[in-house]
Task: structure prediction
Amino acid sequence: MDKGKDVRVRVILECTNCVRTGVKRNSINVNVNKGINRYITQKNRHTTPKRLELRKFCPYCYKHTIHGEITK
Result:
């Protein structure tokens, strides 16, 4: 089976609130309160052709925010 034709694809969800505030993206240390929260999930390419947006908890914002799909 060709990799480009898989129905289920892995996507990365990133907090849109942290991105808007201009937080440093290359923050490696977890103990620092600055950073961008990301989740990894899967979606069905045929039923959801548009970008996925889910409401998830962001530990940096300390609230539930919209997490949008980003490109790898």
Q: What stands out?
A: Residues 16-20 form the longest helix (5 residues). The radius of gyration is 14 Å. The chain has one domain: 8-22+31-70.
